[in-house]
Amino acid sequence: MENLILIVHIISSLAVIGLVLIQHGKGADAGAAFGGGNSGSVFGVQGSSNFLTRATSISVTIFFCTSISLAFIAGNKHQISVPLGSVVENSELVKKDTQGVPDKSSVSQDIPN
């Protein structure tokens, strides 16, 4: 399931990048009005902006949904469930091993006050 979401996430991110690069800005029509080139395209003057804007918004929505789901999956993957009995046993072993060892965090007597 995680691999499928990751594939959809990568495809949607590439689609967002491509769609944003294809679109022209709001100021591009002003340059065309002064003879800077042809402002028409395959979809017509207004049709391309509506199609590209809608396709971009759909791709961004899919990208955000897959981002949230991947973050949720990654968060659940790192939760470790340890039985309480093993924690108690391990803490008792640590107590037995460190009873005869002097505390290393104590202040040395060589340093004058």
List keywords for this structure.
single chain; 113 residues; mainly alpha; 4 helices; 64% helix; elongated
Helix content: 55-70%
What is the strand tally? 0
Written as H for each helix and E for each strand, in order along the chain, the element string is HHHH
Mean pLDDT: 76
- Strand residues, percent: under 5%
Oligomeric grouping of the chains = single chain
Cα distance spanning the termini: 63 Å
Q: Low-confidence stretches at least 5 residues in length (pLDDT < 50)?
A: none
SS class:
mainly alpha
Biggest sheet details: none
CA-atom Rg in angstroms: 31 Å
Number of domain modules: 1
Q: What sort of overall outline do the alpha carbons produce when their principal axes are compared?
A: elongated
Number of helices: 4
Summarize the structure.
The chain has 113 residues and is mostly helical.
Secondary-structure topology with pairs:
Blueprint: H1 2-22, H2 28-33, H3 47-77, H4 84-97
Explained architecture:
With 113 residues, the chain is an all-alpha fold. The protein has one domain (2-24, 31-93). 64% of the residues lie in helices and 0% in strands. Helix 1 packs antiparallel against helix 3 (47-77). The model has no long low-confidence stretch (mean pLDDT 76).
